Structure formats: C-alpha cells, structure tokens
Amino acid sequence: MLNFVTTNPGKVREATAYLDDEVVQFDFDYPEVQADELGAVAAHGAREAYRAADGPVIVDDAGLFIDAFDGFPGPYSSYVEDRVGIERVWRMTEPEDDHSAAFKTVIAYCDGDDFAATPDPVDRDERRGQDLAADDRGGATTDEQVEGGEDALPVKLFEGRVPGEIVAPRGEGGFGFDPIFEHDGTTFAEMSTDEKNAVSHRGRALAKFAEWYAER
C-alpha cells in the first residue's frame, strides 16, 4: 500500500484516479524546510514520512511561478498567499508586460531503496548546508555540510507543470491562487473539480509517477 502524506482528502481522491486503490491517506505533520526548489522541500518531507510510516510514501509540494518575478513566489507560495494575498499578487503583476506564469507540483517518492535517475531525477540528499543555521554555515567544513551521508534515503521526483497567465481574480471555486491563474481562457477558480483535475499540475505529476510506479 502506498501512503500519500497529506491532510487533504481531495488530493487522495485525485491520486486514486491514477493509482486505483493502492493509495491511502497518511496524516503526518513533518517539519517543512525552506528551500528555493520544490524538489528539495518535497524530498525532505518524503524522507521524514518514510521513517514514520515505515513503508512507501509520496509527498507533494506545489507553487505558483510568475515569469516577470523570476519564478517568485515558487516554493514560498503558501507564505506569500498568507502574508500578501492573491489580490496584491495580481496588483503587483498587472503593470508588468509579461503576465505568464505556471503552476508546478513535484511529487517525491521514497521506499527506502535506490532508483535509476533516468528519466526522472533522484534527490540523494547531497545539498550543502541547507539545514545549518546561518551562523554555523560559515564555519562548517565541507564534510559537515553534506547532508545524510551514507545513510541518506534516495527520493524519486516527478514534476507536473501547467502554463497560464496571472489575471484579475475571477471565480468562486478552488483555493489559493486559483482565482488569479488563467489556463486556456478560464481561471482555475472557474473550473469544476473534474475540469481542474483534468489539466492540473498535480494530475500531470501523478500521471508520470503512476506510469513509473506500475513498473516498480
């Protein structure tokens, strides 16, 4: 059985469309690291969850990437939504010539074993200094800054991306930045759940993962 680490049962229902009945919800509150890449955040969560579940897990992390802002807010999307709000994000984007953006999701899978890196990447926990405090990082040796070492758990990563544009808020559905993200003329907040799932970044990542997992 595959554990989907989430508190949102809607995500599990979406996953079952790709994974049949092999996936169950695993409610586990892991400490989320701050990083500039979705993959690093999801991989850290997958390792923590695997150790807690003692079985195969998937963790997802998602964000809104605005081209005019070099991909910001990206992995910091939840924080920006809470502190700034979607209306202000639209107002900041409105004066820009380029309104293009993308929603991205990375699904991280961990089962305690190793993987081949092709065609999807494997995070082997070799980033340097990410979890060290700023005061400690300057004085740390190279060996001290390598995370995990020989005991690191490899994590397989699968990315889904859907392109769109930032627009004035429209629609009553969805959540997060859905009202200001337009795809093919319709905001995510104007779509039904089934319509959104059919084109969503999470669905695209799940489709990639399910194809690979069927051969695992």
UniProtKB/TrEMBL annotation:
Annotated region (Disordered), positions in chain: 117-151
GO terms for cellular component: cytoplasm
Single annotated GO MF: nucleoside triphosphate diphosphatase activity
Assigned keywords, A-Z: Hydrolase
Tree of life domain: Archaea
InterPro entries cross-referenced by the UniProt entry: ITPase-like_fam, RdgB/HAM1
Short name of one Pfam family: Ham1p_like
Example of a GO biological process term: nucleoside triphosphate catabolic process
Compositional bias ranges of the Basic and acidic residues kind: 121-138
Family of the protein in this entry: Belongs to the HAM1 NTPase family.
Record protein name field: Non-canonical purine NTP pyrophosphatase
Organism in which the protein naturally occurs: Haloarcula salinisoli
Source taxonomy: Archaea, Methanobacteriati, Methanobacteriota, Stenosarchaea group, Halobacteria
